[in-house]
Every structure is written in structure tokens, then in C-alpha cells.
């Protein structure tokens, strides 16, 4: 389980490997757990390194670099670089403008812009002067090689400097009981007394870089393993002098790398999730600090001797001493159950929501040492499975109010606790965290802090936030002041102003220690402002979308004792960058999935309050086995327009096409979708009520481009949300237009989880735009089309209804022009 950047002979004709590490449902010990997940995460990173190595060597094999020498001699004999009109060597440039030539390379004049001549020649048109067997493209200098590789989407930084600097032995003052101050050396990263810096050869926008980027650094252009090491970036971007501090991961030996060595570097990917998870397991997944460990490993831990040795040489510490642990509940069962019943009535919880609250009440009062026959009551874990629109966020807001009252009751009756009761709300996305906190505000609860980055937090939450991920205090204030200059609503301006006031006073920083409720994304858990805090109760939302190592970040780091997991395994799985698995027991298997396999019974929230019953019926049949209950009626979801069907499939005779990044688009569908949006807005529908979902990024960009190119004051299309399925999880709109794109093959439009999300975002109208002959061949889409046929005007040909849309649009624009003219006359 070590990182490696493979050499050419290992990748040249090889097939990209798939992930093989299998994650079991139960683990023998915490050591076994760490070994498995370390292997899984390292394997994933190695596949990304393998893929980059393969692309690099394939790209280099297509060009002739025999004329390149490390010595900088631009006019070396035999050079095939053409001369511009000034009779100077031309420079190699890549086409950046969107179009058919995007990414192609050409030669142009290398003089300053004001003095450039009109010389132009495509790279492939430059004929070599040497032997006939050479490839058509001849690259004689590093600058050209770098430009060529970047055109192949390989981020090469040629001729960088590797700097090795001695770390300053700064003296820090530390308070002592016996001496007023004692001096101690500052701690350094690892055991090294020196630090590594990569001085980049060119400046690029800071947004390209982040903390925990993976870099491969080599003395040679073919990245020979002997002269190559792998490292991660220590900070979020280059310094003012374009240097990146590196933390070696594999292959670095100080004796092989002197300061000021000329190196080439490859930016592989950002691995913040993987590296943060590895550090978290190493530092915090420990039985002595995490009482929840036995319950995460297996269900029958009571039957085993906690002090059993695996072998005579290795001591395994007890998994947990249940009696001495911090697992006791805050109040008596009678008080907790009484409060739960009161909350159920006050907030009108449905039977499934009520069951969830009662289960959490029991969990909070259990001590973890009950008899085996009552084990189901003693587990400090509650698993809730909520279908789309089931009121999960509302339920969690009520649960938070319930827990806060329990904490207060505990402190009033039993006094302060060694680890004070605090609740952490965590999720993989900012939207999910903010949705719960907005629910708390709706219920009148404001005593919480949201930790995160300024631009990622919902404006209404900003006054209650601590911006710990945005650099120093002054930078954070500048960012808030910059927000005020943006296009904000009056309400949003009030929130930002209030946030600026709070920031200047330092109020939220002070009360972070006192508040009982904190909201954060899993990625923000390592923020320094949270270092000293412990959260005995952790609530994980949308955990079906998180890998288990990501879920473990808030659990292990903050010494969780009681855990609430909420998710829906029928919706989108975690996104695993850069690799596929040969089975379903890899990193795709979430903590939610594994706990259910282990034997935990999830409480199902069956009642949906979002979709028109006709729309929920599709998902109910295809994905939920008929278990769903509609919490709203057809009368609650009446049509917004007389001419607009609740459910409709518009068949478009378009053709799927592929972009350079292998993402698909369909221009006929894009044009019809935009026409449909225009007609809806012309009929009086607010743009914010419309959402467009597509399964491909290229199609999303095409639709966004067409909408932004309308330039029509009469139609306010800017508020229309156009996103991929992944970005729409958890969101909803009154009207959803779903563009399917594919006309020949299904691709992942046939994925059940993606289909489920795409089909369950609409409250009143679901308008599907696709190719009928193609989609009818798929079993699932065939059933969707069958549902559409059951509705009046539920199946329409786009070409036939286009005239109706044109008439609506024409009538609206004429009326708008008349109103504008009459306004001018009045003036």
C-alpha cells in the first residue's frame, strides 16, 4: 500500500486497472479497519497516478523529441522549429477559444505583442528535416514540449526549481505552572529539519491550486522512478514568489535532492479528501479517544474479550471500557420520552418521523452496557433512511431542538460534564448543512455557529457563521465587503451587513466554545478553529453520498459518542474520482450501507411531501417497491398553466455528439429546452421556479450558453437553474425540464440512482426531453414513457408542439413591446 508513479514499460500497453480492495461488513479490530481503508485509499490514488503516467508516455510517444537537449540552445543545428517573418524561432501556442480547433497547437511569432508579425503554422504542418520514420510533430525545446503536453490535458511544469531550506528553529514561549515562561522549539512537519519548495516556472491563476494537491517531481522528462518522488502541497496555493511548499509522500531522499535542482513537475489531482481521511485515521481512530469504535466494527462485540491478544508480540488495547466510557445518557429515560412525545405533538411529526425521534431519545438515555437481549436499545447509533421529499431536514431540525433541551436538562440536574454536550451537524455539501440550519431559523432557533468558507455559505446563515477557511482576518473582511458589491437582493444585503458587524466584533469566534450546535462540511472538519472542540453527538446528513473515510472525519476527530446517520441508498452514490471498482464492496460502499449490512435496522421515512402523486408514482414503482406514501394530493399540486401537462415526454429528433472530454451533448434537445423555458417565462412563470437537469456537463454548458445569449430584456432567464443530476441532489423546483441527450446508447442515463434523483426533483411538472426510439429500448425508461402515455398530452412530438410555443412567445413579446412603448409615451 504505497504510492508509485509507474514507468513507461508498465503503462504503455496496459489496461487502466480497477479498484480491487474489498471492504468487509465487519472488522476484527480497529487496526484491521485502518489497514483496509488505508489500502483502499492508496489503491485509488495509485490508479490516478497510473492513468496520468499512461497519458504522459502515450503523448510523448507521438512526437519526436530527439532534437531536444537540456542545454538551452535555441538555434541548435537540425532544429525543426520554423522561423517567423522576423527570421527568429517561432513559439508553440495552444488554441484556447471554444470551437473545432480548441486544444490544437500552432507556431506563432515569439516577439512582444506590439511587434509580432503575422506568422502562423499548425504544428502538424511543420515537416521534419530528418528521417522519414519520425512522427510528424518535432519538438526541439522544453517550452514546446510543455505546451504540447498541456494541450493533451497533462499539467506539466517544465524547468522548475526544487528548493531545500533549513527550517528556522524559532523559539516559542509556553506558559508553565512552575516557571512563568519556558522556551521550546517550534514543531516541524515530520522529522525533517528542512522544508521543500517547488518554484514554478510559470504563474497561473491561484484557483488551479489547492491544499493537498498531488505533485510528481522528477529530474528527467520521462519521469524515471529513480529520479522521481511524489509529494502533496502543504498550503492552498503558491506564495507571492510562485513557490509551493511540498510534503514528500514517497520516493524522496534528502541525499538525492540538492537545493536549486532543476526539475519537471506534474500536477496530478487534488487529493484533499483522501489525504485528510488517511491523516484522520492515523491520528484520531483510536479506542482510547473514540468510544464509538466497537459499534463501528461489529454488532456482537459484547461476546468477545476486549483484552484478547491477536499474537504474543502485539498488544491490542481494549476496544472500550463500557462502564468507564462517556456513553451515559444526559437524562433519565422518563424525562427524554416525555420530551419526545411533547415534540411529536408540537411539531406534528408523522408516524415514521415520530419513530425516529423516539429511537434517538432511547439512544441518548442508553448507557451502552445493557443486557444482550436489549442490545437494540443500547446501540449509540441511529440510522434513518429518508426518501425524496420526506421532510428529512425538518425532522433533523426538530431533533436538534430536542437534543438541545436534553443537554440543558442534563446540566440543570446533573451539573457540568467532563466533556460538555455539543452537537455537530455535518454533511459532504454546504447546501445540505445550510438546509438544516435554515430549518432551525424557521423554528426560531438561532443559537448555532456555521463554520465554513464565506462564498459557500447561504447568505441567510452568514450572520451565524465563522469563516475559518478563508485566510487571515483581514482577507475574510475584504471578502465580505466584496460580497456587498455583488448583485444581491435587499434581504441578502442585510445578512451580509450583519455578518460584517459580527466579524468586526469577533462575536462568533467567542461563542463557538459556548454554543451547543455547530454546522460544518466534512471537508472543513480539520479547520484550526475546531481543534480544541469535542462533539459527543454527531449528525451526518446525506451520508449515502459520502465514502466511509469521509464520514469518519467528523466522527473520529471530535470523539463522537452518539451518532445519527441520515441518507437514501436509492439516490446518488459517492463520487470516486478517477477510478472504477470491480465489485460493489469498494469505496462506493458507504458507512450507511455497511452499518445496514452489519445488522442495524434503518428507520424508513416513507411519506413524501414534494412531488405530485403522478410523479412520485414513477419512483415508487421503479425504485421503492411500492412502499412510498404521498403526503400531498393532486389538489395540493395543481398545474401552474392550463396548457402544461403534469407529466410529459417530448420526443426530439436530434443526434448525440461528443466533446473532446468525452461528454455528450445534443443541440436539437438544447434548442428545444431553451424554447420551452422561454415559453414558460412568457406565460408568467418565474425563472426561479424552473430547473433544468441534464445527465451530461457538455449539455449543461450548451443550454447555459444558449440562455445567456438570448439578450432579451422581456425574458428574465437568469434565475433558471441549469445543472447536472449530481448538483441537483437535495434540491427541488416547481417545474423540471429533463434533457436526456442520448440517441444511440444509454450510457449512465440508465443508472437507477441517477434516474431516481432526476425524476424526483419536480413538485408540479416534469417535462422530459429525449429520443423516444432510443429510450424505449431501456427497461426503466420504457416504464417512465408508459407513465407519460397515461396522461393527457403526456407524449408529444417536439416538432408538432413547437408552433404552439412560438405563438406563446410571439404574443408575449408583442404585448411587452406595446407596454414599453406606452411607458415611454407617458414619460
Strand and helix layout:
Layout: H1 8-11, H2 30-61, E1 91-94, E2 105-108, E3 120-122, H3 142-151, E4 156-166, E5 171-175, E6 181-185, E7 194-199, E8 213-218, E9 228-233, E10 243-250, E11 261-270, H4 272-284, H5 293-297, H6 333-346, H7 351-365, H8 375-378, E12 381-386, H9 392-414, E13 423-427, H10 430-442, E14 448-451, E15 465-466, H11 473-484, H12 490-505, H13 507-511, E16 517-521, E17 537-540, H14 548-557, E18 562-567, H15 591-598, E19 603-605, E20 607-608, H16 613-622, E21 629-630, E22 647-651, E23 657-658, E24 664-665, H17 667-682, E25 690-694, H18 697-708, E26 721-724, H19 725-728, E27 733-739, H20 752-759, E28 762-770, H21 772-776, H22 779-789, E29 795-797, H23 798-826
Parallel strand pairs: 12-18, 12-19, 13-16, 13-17, 14-15, 14-16, 17-18, 20-21, 22-28, 22-29, 25-26, 25-27, 27-28
Antiparallel strand pairs: 1-2, 2-3, 4-7, 4-11, 5-6, 7-10, 8-9, 8-11, 9-10, 23-24
Helix pairs in contact: 2-4, 4-14, 6-7, 6-9, 9-10, 11-12, 17-18, 17-23
Amino acid at each position: 500500500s504505497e504510492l508509485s508513479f509507474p514507468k513507461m514499460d508498465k503503462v504503455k500497453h496496459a489496461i487502466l486497472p480497477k479498484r480491487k480492495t474489498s471492504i468487509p461488513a465487519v472488522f476484527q479490530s480497529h487496526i484491521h479497519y485502518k489497514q483496509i481503508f488505508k489500502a483502499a485509499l492508496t489503491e485509488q490514488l495509485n490508479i490516478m497516478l497510473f492513468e496520468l503516467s499512461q497519458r504522459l508516455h502515450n503523448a510523448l510517444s507521438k512526437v519526436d523529441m530527439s532534437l531536444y537537449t537540456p542545454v538551452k540552445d535555441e538555434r541548435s543545428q537540425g532544429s525543426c522549429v520554423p522561423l517567423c517573418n522576423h527570421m527568429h524561432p517561432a513559439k508553440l501556442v495552444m488554441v484556447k477559444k471554444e470551437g473545432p480547433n480548441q486544444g490544437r497547437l500552432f507556431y506563432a511569432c515569439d516577439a512582444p505583442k506590439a511587434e509580432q508579425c503575422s506568422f502562423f503554422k499548425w504544428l502538424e504542418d511543420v515537416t521534419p528535416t530528418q528521417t522519414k520514420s519520425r512522427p510528424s510533430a518535432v519538438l526541439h525545446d522544453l517550452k514546446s514540449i510543455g505546451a504540447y503536453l498541456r494541450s493533451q490535458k497533462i499539467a506539466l511544469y517544465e524547468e522548475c526549481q526544487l528548493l531545500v531550506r533549513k527550517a528556522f528553529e524559532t523559539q516559542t514561549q509556553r506558559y508553565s505552572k512552575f516557571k512563568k515562561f519556558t522556551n521550546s522549539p517550534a514543531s516541524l512537519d515530520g522529522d525533517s529539519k528542512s522544508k521543500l519548495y517547488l518554484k514554478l516556472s510559470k504563474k497561473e491563476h491561484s484557483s488551479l491550486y489547492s491544499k493537498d494537491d498531488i505533485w510528481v517531481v522528477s529530474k528527467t522528462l520521462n519521469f524515471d522512478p529513480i529520479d522521481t518522488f511524489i509529494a502533496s502541497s502543504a498550503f492552498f496555493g503558491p506564495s507571492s514568489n510562485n513557490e509551493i511548499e511540498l510534503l514528500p509522500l514517497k520516493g524522496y531522499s534528502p541525499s538525492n535532492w540538492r537545493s536549486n535542482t532543476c526539475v519537471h513537475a506534474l500536477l496530478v489531482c487534488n487529493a484533499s479528501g483522501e489525504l485528510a481521511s488517511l491523516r484522520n485515521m492515523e491520528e484520531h481512530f483510536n479506542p482510547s479517544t473514540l468510544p464509538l469504535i466497537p459499534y463501528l466494527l461489529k454488532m456482537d462485540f459484547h461476546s468477545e474479550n476486549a483484552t484478547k491478544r491477536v499474537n504474543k508480540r502485539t498488544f491490542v488495547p481494549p476496544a472500550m471500557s463500557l462502564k468507564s466510557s462517556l456513553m451515559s445518557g444526559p437524562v433519565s429515560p422518563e424525562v427524554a420520552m416525555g420530551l419526545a412525545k411533547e415534540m411529536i405533538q408540537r411539531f406534528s411529526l408523522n408516524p415514521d418521523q415520530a419513530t425516529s425521534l423516539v429511537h434517538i431519545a432511547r439512544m441518548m438515555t442508553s448507557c451502552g452496557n445493557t443486557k444482550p437481549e436489549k442490545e437494540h436499545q443500547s446501540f449509540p447509533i441511529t440510522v434513518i433512511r429518508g426518501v425524496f421529499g420526506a421532510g428529512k431536514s425538518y425532522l433533523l431540525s426538530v431533533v436538534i431542538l430536542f437534543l438541545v433541551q436534553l443537554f440543558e436538562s442534563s446540566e440543570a440536574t446533573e451539573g457540568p460534564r467532563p466533556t460538555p454536550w455539543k452537537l455537530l451537524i455535518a454533511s459532504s455539501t454546504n447546501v445540505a448543512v445550510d438546509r438544516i440550519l435554515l430549518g432551525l431559523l424557521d423554528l426560531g432557533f438561532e443559537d448555532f455557529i456555521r463554520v465554513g468558507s464565506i462564498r459557500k455559505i447561504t447568505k441567510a446563515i452568514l450572520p451565524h457563521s465563522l469563516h475559518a477557511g478563508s485566510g487571515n482576518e483581514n482577507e475574510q473582511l475584504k471578502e465580505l465587503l466584496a460580497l456587498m458589491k455583488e448583485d444581491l437582493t435587499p434581504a441578502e444585503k442585510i445578512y451580509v451587513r450583519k455578518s460584517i458587524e459580527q466579524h468586526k466584533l469577533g462575536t462568533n469566534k467567542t461563542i463557538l466554545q459556548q454554543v451547543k450546535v455547530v454546522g460544518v462540511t466534512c471537508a472543513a472538519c480539520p479547520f484550526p478553529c475546531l481543534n480544541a472542540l469535542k462533539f459527543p453527538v454527531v449528525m451526518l446528513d446525506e451520508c449515502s453520498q459520502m465514502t466511509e473515510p469521509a464520514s469518519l472525519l467528523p466522527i473520529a476527530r471530535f470523539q463522537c459518542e452518539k451518532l445519527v446517520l441520515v441518507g437514501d441508498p436509492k439516490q446518488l452514490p459517492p463520487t470516486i474520482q478517477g477510478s472504477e471498482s470491480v465489485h460493489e464492496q469498494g469505496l462506493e460502499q458507504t458507512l450507511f450501507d455497511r452499518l445496514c449490512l452489519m445488522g442495524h435496522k434503518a428507520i424508513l421515512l416513507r411519506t413524501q411531501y414534494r412531488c405530485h402523486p403522478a410523479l412520485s408514482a414513477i419512483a415508487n414503482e421503479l425504485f421503492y417497491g411500492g412502499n412510498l406514501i404521498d403526503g400531498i394530493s393532486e389538489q395540493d399540486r395543481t398545474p401552474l398553466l392550463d396548457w402544461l401537462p403534469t407529466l410529459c415526454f417530448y420526443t426530439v429528433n436530434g443526434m448525440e455528439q461528443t466533446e473532446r472530454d468525452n461528454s455528450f451533448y445534443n443541440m436539437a434537445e438544447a434548442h428545444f429546452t431553451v424554447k420551452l423555458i422561454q415559453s414558460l417565462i412568457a406565460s408568467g412563470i418565474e425563472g426561479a421556479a424552473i430547473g433544468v437537469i441534464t445527465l451530461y456537463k457538455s449539455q449543461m454548458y450548451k443550454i447555459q450558453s444558449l440562455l445567456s445569449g438570448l439578450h432579451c430584456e422581456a425574458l428574465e432567464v437568469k434565475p433558471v437553474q441549469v445543472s447536472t443530476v449530481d448538483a441537483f441532489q437535495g434540491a427541488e423546483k416547481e417545474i423540471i425540464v429533463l434533457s436526456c441527450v442520448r440517441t444511440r446508447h444509454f450510457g449512465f442515463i440508465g443508472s437507477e440512482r441517477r434516474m431516481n434523483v432526476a425524476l424526483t426533483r419536480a413538485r408540479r411538472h416534469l417535462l422530459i426531453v429525449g429520443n423516444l426510439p432510443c429510450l424505449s429500448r431501456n427497461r426503466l425508461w420504457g416504464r417512465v414513457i408508459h407513465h407519460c402515455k397515461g396522461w393527457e398530452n403526456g407524449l408529444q412530438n417536439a416538432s408538432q408542439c413547437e408552433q404552439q410555443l412560438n405563438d406563446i412567445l410571439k404574443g408575449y413579446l408583442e404585448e411587452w413591446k406595446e407596454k414599453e412603448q406606452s411607458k415611454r409615451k407617458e414619460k
